[in-house]
Specification:
Length: 213
């Protein structure tokens, strides 16, 4: 069966600011890594934010028009072991971890702690804020920008980061920080209409930002 054709992802309302944010989600010990961009510059990179509320406050200081979160925004349908959009993205772009149904998430497995923490962040951001919130998957973003991974993930994303049209990048970054930056770049492309959508998952169109094939 051929993979489903992704639907174009377009923002639902006009935007007035020029900041975009990305969030990499980890478990309770790691928390959240945040990145905020303006048009072509990394404004701030914030590591290891401890809670969803702290992340919301940090983002509110920048008033981003779009916040892109690297975490599922919903569980699978009851009785399912994955969301169908994840299967479609895997077939069309790259591999992705499956998201189980809510009953499985509620069992408290440490493996799914990052998903539960991500859902807390979606809830916190929905309560108040000037932003639109989208779900992204940085591995898919890196793949769409520079092609499928060959070799170690760290080396792949480090090389890809320096090919993005961004100024004021730090000379050294951790993987979580790079994924947060990738999420923020995807948020900006979403605002510009340069993305596809697999269900709720927003993915850049193929090619580097500003140099789309």
């Amino acid at each position: 069966m051929s993979p489903a054709t992704p639907a174009p992802a377009t923002p639902s309302r006009p935007k007035s600011s020029s900041a975009w944010a990305g969030v990499d989600v980890g478990g309770r010990r790691k928390g959240f890594d945040l990145a905020v961009l303006d048009d072509d510059r990394l404004v701030e990179s914030i590591p290891r934010v401890s809670s969803a509320e702290s992340a919301r406050r940090a983002l509110a200081a920048h008033r981003p028009q779009v916040v892109a979160i690297d975490s599922p925004r919903s569980a699978a349908m009851a009785g399912r072991t994955l969301r169908e959009c994840e299967r479609e993205l895997r077939d069309a772009v790259c591999g992705i971890r499956w998201t189980p149904d809510q009953r499985e998430l509620d069992q408290g497995s440490a493996y799914y702690e990052w998903i539960r923490l991500g859902l807390e962040l979606y809830e916190a951001l929905a309560e108040v804020g000037p932003w639109e919130v989208i779900e992204v998957f940085p591995t898919a973003s890196w793949t769409r920008w520079v092609g499928r991974r060959r070799g170690a993930r760290a080396a792949w994303t480090r090389a890809a980061l320096w090919r993005l049209p961004l100024r004021e990048l730090p000379s050294r970054t951790q993987q979580d920080a790079r994924d947060a930056i990738a999420a923020a770049v995807t948020a900006r492309q979403y605002a510009l209409g340069e993305t596809d959508r697999f269900g709720p998952i927003v993915v850049p169109k193929p090619g580097l930002p500003g140099r789309r094939a």
